[in-house]
């Protein structure tokens, strides 16, 4: 088993970040297909990854017929909602690359029982990757963002899901925001071969510095929980987000 690795790349601006991230994703996809004839990716929501998705569509280089697409989290909204992570990824990327519909596995945030939806989504991941219940699926790549409060995916500060050790996907309620969401758990994320954070903007600087350089306090900064057990952790950040870091590597 190889040692986990961390790669920090600081780019001048959001456009450079998006291009560098897209190029790295294409390289990871090519390696995965060459190694096991399949590329599995969990997409993230938010403003930062949209441009990366657009560039993935423009640059080409991913064999979409051999790609299984998932989401790291989703809001409790219908798929056509402006707040839907699925809709954003579909418009920016999926509708533009002809990925087979059966290869797209959206989180059903609009259902009444999010707990049942979380369990069903975990089963769908296992089925798509051919993994039985005795093993944790190993995604090739999980994309994540970082909130100004230190959250990632829908792993929010001081929520019960941070301590989930058995489920792969969980329903989340955040009382402070009155939010319901679905999210991949740290168990599933940390089993991935590659995890990539995309972080842009000065409003993320304090959270990024606390996550990477501050004392260990994952209840306050949940992104500190993300450390692939046998894989690579990438941080693609722009200069504004990196402005409070004391180390650059």
Written description of the protein model:
The chain is α/β, with parallel strands linked by helices. The protein has a single domain, classed as Rossmann fold (3-Layer(aba) Sandwich), CATH 3.40.50. Helices cover about 30% and strands about 20% of the residues. It is built from six helices and nine strands, in the order βαβαββααβββαβαβ. It has helices at about 15-35, 50-60, 85-95, 115-130, 185-190, 205-215; strands at about 5-10, 40-45, 65-70, 75, 140-145, 170-175, 180-185, 195-200, 230-240. Strands 1-9-8-5-2-3 form a six-stranded parallel β-sheet, sandwiched between helices. Strands 4-7-6 form a three-stranded antiparallel β-sheet. α6 (about 205-215) links the parallel β8 and β9 (about 230-240). The mean pLDDT is about 95.
CATH topology category name = Rossmann fold
Q: Approximately what portion of the residues adopt beta-strand conformation? A: 15-25%
* Overall average residue pLDDT: 95
Name the structural class: alpha/beta
Report the C-alpha radius of gyration, rounded: 17 Å
Strand segment tally: 9
**SSE pattern:** EHEHEEHHEEEHEHE
Helix content: 25-40%
**Biggest sheet, spatial arrangement of strands:** 1-9-8-5-2-3
């Amino acid at each position: 088993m190889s040692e986990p690795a961390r790669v920090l790349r600081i780019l001048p601006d959001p456009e450079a970040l998006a291009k560098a991230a897209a190029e790295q994703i294409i390289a990871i996809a090519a390696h995965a297909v060459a190694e096991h004839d399949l590329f599995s990716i969990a997409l993230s929501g938010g403003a930062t990854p949209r441009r990366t998705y657009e560039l993935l569509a423009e640059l080409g280089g991913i064999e979409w017929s051999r790609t299984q697409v998932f989401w790291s989290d989703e809001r409790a909204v219908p798929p056509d909602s402006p707040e839907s992570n699925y809709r954003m990824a579909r418009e920016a990327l999926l509708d533009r690359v002809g990925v087979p519909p059966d290869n797209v596995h959206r989180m059903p945030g609009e259902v009444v029982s999010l707990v049942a939806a979380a369990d069903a989504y975990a089963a769908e991941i296992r089925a798509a990757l051919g993994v039985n219940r005795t093993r944790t699926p190993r995604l090739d790549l999980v994309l994540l963002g970082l909130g100004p409060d230190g959250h990632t995916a829908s792993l929010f500060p001081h929520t019960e899901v941070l301590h989930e050790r058995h489920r792969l996907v969980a329903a989340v309620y955040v009382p402070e925001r009155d939010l319901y969401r679905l999210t991949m758990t740290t168990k599933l994320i940390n089993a991935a071969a590659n995890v990539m954070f995309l972080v842009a903007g000065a409003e993320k600087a304090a959270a990024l510095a606390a996550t990477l350089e501050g004392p260990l306090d994952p209840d306050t900064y949940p992104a500190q929980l993300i450390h692939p057990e046998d894989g690579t952790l990438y941080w693609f950040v722009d200069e504004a987000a990196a402005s409070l870091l004391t180390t650059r590597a």
